[in-house]
Design goal:
This is Citrate transporter. The protein has 198 residues and is mainly α. It has nine helices and no strands. It is globular, with a radius of gyration of 20 Å.
Length: 198
């Protein structure tokens, strides 16, 4: 029970103080401090653990930031308007074109880059079509994971670093689990949204 106490405290803090600005960061910090206190006898050298965590998070942050930056550069290219018009004219319901656009872009710029690009560049058009913002959000977030097992993906790089695998040895399984799972979820979400919300 003591092992899940920091998680319970973090979730409870977020729920009960959800109107506080940056509550997630505050709750996470509080949970980390609680872990340091509760587990001090199991982790005698906590500074090394904190240093390893900080170093590990920096690489992931830079990969995600570079994917988003690549997306911003791509959207400012003159040819992006051609891509945008092509996406908006994909046959079928608008949710299908939104799902396809996000999925294809996730293969180019990983999930974080595709989500940022679609939300900033395409979401206003879909909002103007009368699609609820929460539906756009769900389709984009799930669609961002459909082709996210690519070499430049922050998740893939982080997972491979932690597990000791390389892209060659971990690709097949990661592709089946991640991309397949997201694709099934995306199809179900588009169908349910189309039937019940539009």
């Amino acid at each position: 029970m003591i092992s899940i106490l920091p998680l319970i405290v973090m979730i409870a803090t977020i729920i009960f103080f959800n109107n506080v600005k940056n509550i997630i960061l505050i709750a996470l910090t509080f949970s980390i401090v609680l872990c340091a206190i509760l587990f001090r006898k199991y982790l005698p050298n906590q500074i090394d653990v904190l240093n390893a965590g900080a170093i590990g998070s920096i690489g992931s942050s830079f990969v995600a930031a570079s994917a988003v930056a690549f997306g911003m550069v791509l959207t400012n290219a003159p040819t992006f308007n051609i891509v945008k018009e092509f996406i908006l004219h994909i046959p079928g319901p608008p949710l299908v074109s939104l799902a396809v656009a996000t999925s294809i872009l996730s293969g180019v710029m990983a999930a974080s880059g595709s989500i940022g690009t679609v939300i900033t560049q395409l979401a206003p058009t879909y909002l103007a079509m009368g699609i609820p913002a929460e539906i756009i959000h769900r389709i984009v977030v799930i669609g961002g994971g459909v082709i996210t097992v690519v070499p430049q993906s922050g998740v893939v790089l982080t997972f491979n670093t932690i597990s000791g695998l390389n892209f060659k040895h971990g690709f097949k399984e990661a592709f089946i689990v991640s991309n397949g799972g997201f694709l099934i979820s995306l199809i179900i979400t588009v169908i349910v949204a189309q039937l019940f919300y539009l």
